[in-house]
Write a structure and sequence with these properties.
Order of helices and strands: HHHH
Strand content: under 5%
Number of domains: 1
Structural class: mainly alpha
Low-confidence stretches: none
Number of strands: 0
Helix content: over 70%
Shape: extended
Largest sheet: none
Mean pLDDT: 88
Length: about 110
């Protein structure tokens, strides 16, 4: 693969990376933390890859909602670190508790 010799291409690429580096860095941090947590806990390679991918995606999802809650985009790394540290199951249980509190389920007889 040859590298493009147009300076505009590099300028566009670097501008895009500069704009999205906090978000990409947070997703990478989250995935890395998840992989390290699974490794430390004695998990399998499959668990590491799946947990890392899910934590990275979950981080991207949460970061996109920061603006909605009036929080700065600079919190992206904080969010990524905590998502990777807590893991998917813990975040799911927190989300279940929040939605059960906010949206009570119907009782079936």
């Amino acid at each position: 693969m040859t590298m493009p010799d147009k300076p505009d291409t590099w300028a566009i690429l670097f501008a895009w990376l500069n704009q999205y580096s906090p978000v990409l860095g947070a997703a990478f941090l989250s995935a890395t933390m998840a992989v390290l947590r699974i490794t430390y806990g004695g998990g399998t390679r499959r668990q590491m890859l799946v947990e890392g991918a899910i934590c990275g995606g979950l981080t991207l999802t949460i970061i996109s909602g920061l603006e909605f809650f009036g929080l700065p985009q600079s919190m992206a790394t904080f969010v990524g670190g905590w998502v990777g540290f807590l893991g998917v199951e813990k975040i799911r249980s927190i989300a279940d508790r929040v939605t059960d509190f906010k949206l009570p389920g119907r009782k079936t007889d």
